[in-house]
Structure formats: C-alpha cells, structure tokens
Amino acid sequence: MRKLIYGMNLTLDGYIAAPGDDIGWSVPSDELFQFWSDQLQATDLSLYGRKLWQTMSSHWPTGDQQPNATPAEIEFARRWRDMSKVVFSSTIDKVDWNTRLVAGDAVAEITRLKAEEGGPMDIGGATLAGAAMRAGLIDEYVLATAPVLVGGGTPFFTALDNWVNLNLVETRTLPCGVILTRYETRR
C-alpha cells in the first residue's frame, strides 16, 4: 500500500495563498527549494488539483531552459517533467508531461492508487487535498511554515468531520526562518 503525503508552503496563520491566490509571500530560499526537490525525488507519483496543476505546468516543463535557472531549478524541472502525475479536473481536457487526467470521483481514484504497489504519492492543491483529508487518506503532512501572517486566503487544512490525531516525525528550522514539520497520521 502506498503512502499519501500532503505538503506545501504555508503562512504562520495557515494559508497556502493569500486573498486573490497571491503567493508572493512564499519566496523560497535555496534550502527550502532543495528540501522540496528532495521530496520530489523520493516521490513515485504526484496528484494535483486543477489550480496547482496549472501553476506548476505553466513553469516547470521548461524551467530547466530558463536563462537564469540555477542548477537546483534545472534538476527540479527535469524531475518534475519526467515523473508520473495525475491531475483531477472536470474543467480541463488535456494534460502533458507524463500526466494522466481524471475527471471522475477523486476520492475513489486516490483510494485505488493507494492500494497499488509502489512508492510514496504526494498530493497538492487545497481542494483535492481537502477531499482526501476528509476521507482519511492522508498518511503524512509536511508543513513548510513561513514567518508571515496574511490574514486570510486559501487554508492549508480543510474543515473536518472528525479529529485527525498525528505523531510528530520531524521538526527543522531553516536559516530563512521557515520551520519544516512532518507529522504522520496516527491510525
């Protein structure tokens, strides 16, 4: 059975985007970027909601070809482009870069994917991750908490019907002030 990991950058007050989908507060340091690149390398399959997919696919397919791309960005772009991905959306009809589109029941498909043999999967996008969270499918939460308050926007955590008990696995502070925390779901 595969592990499902939900991780993103978020503000200290718990938002992955400020009002208007503004992510300008999230300027990754070299250390934070390397952390996410290492996470990607350890991932077998990435699951995306439409909005995050559109954000990622607008840059990373050619991120390694940008004139000012750092070696870390070049490596990340190649990893991202080559890895297997699934996008859940009923409003787009085409995806590229080693990606499969699912327009049906996301929770049923994620449940099916988790039951398969294989390495870890990550999930991104607040709406998609929220559905997986409510269904009890998330095995690990990875939070990269930035020292900024935005006061509103898109929350990292969704409203839940039941409590989710967690075990702290790791805490690390990066020089830029971001605190990395990993929690496993206690089952």
UniProtKB/TrEMBL annotation:
SUPFAM superfamilies: Dihydrofolate reductase-like. It holds the Pfam family RibD_C. InterPro entries: DHFR-like_dom_sf, RibDG_C, Riboflavin_Biosynth_HTPR. It comes from the Bacteria. Residues 2-180 form the Bacterial bifunctional deaminase-reductase C-terminal domain. This is Dihydrofolate reductase family protein. It comes from Streptomyces lutosisoli.
